[in-house]
C-alpha cells in the first residue's frame, strides 16, 4: 500500500497521533518506520513527524540519527537533518529550549556508534 494511503488510513482511524506519540517517546521501533511513512505525508504531517523526531532526540539519539542521512537537501520523502536538529518546535518557551538543548547535546555527545558520529556532529552543529 502506498505511504500516502497508509497515512490517510492512520489519520482516518485516529492512529497517526498515536504513532507520533511513540516517536516522541523515543521508541526505536516506531522511529525506524519513519522513512516508510514520511514519503506519504503532506507539509503539515511532515512537520509533525520532524517535531516528534526532535522530541525523541534527547531520549534516543541513536535511533533518530539512524534515519537521518546528514544531508540538508535530503531526497524528497525523507526527514531533513536541519529541521529535526534545528529546534523545530512551535512557539517553545525559553526554558524549554534551554533544557532541550542541554539534553539533546548530552545525548548526541554520548553516541558511540562510529557510523552515526558524522550525523551526530552535524546535528550538534544545528543545535548551536
Instruction: Report low-confidence residues grouped into runs of 5 or more.
Output: none
Query: Overall mean pLDDT score?
Result: 92
Q: What distance separates the N and C termini?
A: 40 Å
Radius of gyration computed on alpha carbons: 14 Å
Number of helices in the DSSP assignment: 8
Task: Provide the domain count.
Answer: 1
Helix percent band: 55-70%
How much beta, percentage-wise? under 5%
H/E topology pattern = HHHHHHHH
Structural class by secondary-structure content: mainly alpha
Total beta strands:
0
Main sheet specs: none
Q: Shape, please?
A: globular
Helices and strands in order, then pairings?
Blueprint: H1 3-12, H2 16-24, H3 28-38, H4 43-56, H5 61-66, H6 81-84, H7 94-109, H8 117-127
Helix pairs in contact: 2-4, 7-8
Can you describe this structure?
This protein is mainly α. The protein has one domain (3-127). 63% of the residues lie in helices and 0% in strands. The chain contains eight helices and no strands. It has helices spanning 3-12, 16-24, 28-38, 43-56, 61-66, 81-84, 94-109, 117-127. Helix 2 runs parallel beside helix 4 and helix 7 packs antiparallel against helix 8 (117-127). The longest helix has 16 residues, at 94-109. The protein is globular. 28% of the residues are buried. The model has no long low-confidence stretch (mean pLDDT 92).
